[in-house]
Amino acid sequence: MNPSKPVSRTRNRLTLLLITGVFVGPIVLAWLFSSGRLALPGDELTHRGQLLDPPVDLSAEGARPGIAPLFRLQPSEWAVVLLQAEACDEQPCGKVLDDLLTLRELIGQAGVRVSTHAITGLPGAPERHASRVHPDPDTLALLAERLPAGQAGPLPAIVFVDWRHQLMMRYAATGELSNIQRDLKRLLRASAIK
Question: Is 166 helix (H, G, I), strand (E, B) or coil?
């Protein structure tokens, strides 16, 4: 028996493992980052908005006109809703809705699972947002009562509503949209039906 054969086999196996690791390792690492299972320092899996605990259950509110469009969400769909006491004029409401629609585009393919709405206390909206703006002062007052005040007071606010009619997250309407985008991407990834 030749003693160099086991050493040669071991060396060949290690070489094969190294080559496999060089090619497969980056693919596995990219998948871990993209799926959210691995995060860079400073990019922890924490939300940037105010998580409502417990969530506000909108299904208990019945058929109110302001939240009726939210009842049409399908499983794994989300709504981003601007809550505002005034009418939806060009500034700031119209611009916020424009930004939220742009956000849907930036999210990519999963953005089709997001709808954008505004519930306002007074009627009025820019023509391009007329189908998204739902004046309903009673529902708005009820939601403002049930929302935590946060740093900027209860209204105006941007909230996430899921397909089970649960109001989950709250953001200041003047906050950074990049924070909303990050949280929304994470929610869409986690709630995808495969």
Answer: strand
Q: Is 103's pLDDT higher than 80?
A: yes
* Whole-number Cα distances in Å, 89 to 116, 117, 173: 16, 14, 14
Q: Is the pLDDT of residue 152 over 50?
A: no
Instruction: State the sign of the Cα–Cα–Cα–Cα dihedral 29, 31, 105, 49.
Output: negative
Could you tell me which residues come within 8 angstroms of residue 44 by beta carbon, excluding any fewer than 6 positions away?
none
Whole-model pTM: value is: 0.69
Q: Give me the sheet containing 114-120, strands edge to edge.
A: 50-57, 166-172, 157-162, 78-84, 114-120, 133-135
- What is the signed CA dihedral for 123, 124, 129, 132, rounded to 10 degrees? 0
Cα–Cα dist 38/153, whole Å: 34
Q: What percent helix, strand, coil does the chain show, rounded to 5?
A: 45, 20, 35
User: How many residues are listed for the chain in this entry?
Assistant: 194
Distance CA 107, CA 84 (A): 25
- In the structure encoding, which two tokens stand for residue 104, read together? 């849907």
Average pLDDT score, the chain: 80
Determine contact, residues 57/165, Cβ cutoff 8 Å: yes
CA distance 56 to 28: 38
pLDDT band at 23 (very low <50, low <70, confident <90, very high): very high
